[in-house]
Amino acid sequence: DMLVREAAPRGLLGTVMAFVTVGFTTGSSSMPVICGWLVDMGHGDAIFTVSAVLMLVVIGSVFIARERSL
User: Fold this and answer.
1) In this predicted structure, what is the pLDDT of residue 70?
2) What is the largest CA-CA distance in the chain?
């Protein structure tokens, strides 16, 4: 919460908090299903690849959003 508040542009705290909350909720509900499916299919090691790709997508979206807000 404190990191999000500090990183949020002035006047957009509600929008940023909504984005973070939706991301946490979506990830918490979908990733167990996806990871379970990967394990059931015998690709347990792919969980790390999927996680790394999703982290890169999120990092990219942060940089794009920061660039647009400047």
Assistant:
1) 66
2) 47
Rounded to whole angstroms, what are the CA distances from 1 to 7, 44, 45, 54?
10, 32, 32, 21
Q: What is the DSSP letter of 1?
A: -
Sequence length of the chain is 70
Cβ neighbours for 38, distance < 8 A, ≥ 6 positions apart: 44, 46, 47, 50
Nearest to 69 by CA among 26, 9, 29, 16: 9
pLDDT (tens digit per residue) in 36-51: 999 999 999 999 999 9
